[in-house]
Structure formats: structure tokens, C-alpha cells
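Dear support,

I submitted the protein below through the web form. The confirmation email said the job was done, but the results page showed an empty box. After a refresh the structure appeared. I'm attaching both so you can tell me whether what I see now is the final result or a partial one.
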Amino acid sequence: MSVTDVTTAEFATSVLQRSHQVPVVVDFWAEWCGPCKVLGPVLERLAAEANGSWELAKVDVDQNQQLAMQFGVQGIPTVIAFKDGEAVNRFTGALPEAQVREFVNGVVPSDLDIAAERAHIALEEGDEALAEQTWRAVLERDPAHEIAGTGLAALLLERGLSSEAIEVLERLAPTEGVRQLMAASRLTGGGDLAALERDAADGTPGSLLAFGKGLAAAGAYERGFDTLLEVVSMREPELSDQARLVMLDLFELLGPDHPLTAAYRRRLASALF
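What the results page shows now:
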């Protein structure tokens, strides 16, 4: 059914878990609420028209006060959209139908979203060619489509095609996932690590920079940080700045909670200032 009445006991299953399969729009309402009686039929009609692309859950706030408090409902009707177990958008009041429709369209996957997700399934099933073909087709229509762009970039990165991956990523909004893939792409291709280490024995900034980047690409992050920090400390304007940028990419790749990120951010700041 596209419309269900949900209680506090059912919310985790009927809304949070269900929203991993399909967006769920929750209408917090009450029998005595006049605006609720205006908005409710609009939501129900749009849900029926959607043919299962999203579902409507109705929560009576009088019967489920704890649930309303949990989600910060201070006035009714309040409508909250859930995707992947998280609240992603909301509004309060009986909006005109056009605005309600716009709200719903903002949380329902588009045809391109669905195609891009199907490409992920194809990749999981071993059909790499179909996944790539689908992602490229989506990006032809929308070069900034994040699901397709990150999927294709990750695939290119696995093949060692970091320059092509960067070209794809540069067209996307800089979300956390995009920034991490971009950092990984720039760190790829360090070269023969043993040869780079031999070259670095001369202690010149250029050879140390190449060695530090190679260590990072090989996953030897701590040693890579130490080598890059040495280059930064040499204060050779261009090469020191390049080493700093590689360190910033490593911070992005490892994430803010990684212990090396916190430790070497402090050391980088000390070296710079």
C-alpha cells in the first residue's frame, strides 16, 4: 500500500527500514487539526499517483507524542521525508499542492538515479561493461550526476586510469565521497617504489616529493607523511607547496577521524607557520 498509519512501535520497521528500499514521506497530523485535513488528502492523492515510487506514512501525534518529540515536531501538519534511514527534508503547514509535489519530487529517485543504481547492481553481478556503459550514458545526459560519476570514477581508478577519473570527478559537486575519490585519483601511480627510494637518497626536494607520493600511493601513509613533511620544511616554494597539497589529499583520503590525520595536520601547521 502507498499509504499506511504508523505508530511509534512500527516506525523503525515501516519508515526507517523501509526507506532503504523506497522513500517514505511521514505526515505528522492530528484529528483536531484543520490544516491537516487540507494537506492530508493532497499527500494521499500524490502517493496514489506515484505507483509505489514513494510511500506515505501517517502518524497521529496525539497517539504518538514521543515520536513527534523525537523528530522535533513543534507544529502540525509537519511532513518529513526519509531516505536510507535518515530524515532528508521537511516542511510544516498546509502548502499548496504544487509545492507539495515539488517537495516529493525532490526525494523520489529520477530515471537517471534508477539507471545509475542499476549499474551498481550490474557491477556487483560481474557485468563491468554494462555498468560502465550505463554510467557513461547517464553522464551524457547529466555530467554532474553524482551516483554515475563516482561509480565510473571508481571503476576507472581501479584500472589505473587516474587522469580519466579526475576528468569525471571535476564535473561533480564536491561532496565528501567525491573529494575522497579525487584525492585517491591524484595519489595513484606513484611508480616503482624501490627506484623512487634510491633516487630520494640524494635528498633533493624533487626526489623526496616523488618518493613521498609513491609511499602514499602504496599505502605507507605514515612514512609518506614524514617524507612529504620534510619537503614542506625545505621551503622550496613550488615543491614544498606540492608536498603540502599531497598531504591535504592524504588527509581527505584518510578522513578527519583517522589518527594520522589529526597528528600530521598539527605537524603540517607547525612546519608552515
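Response: this is the final, complete result; the empty box was a page-load delay. The radius of gyration is 25 Å.
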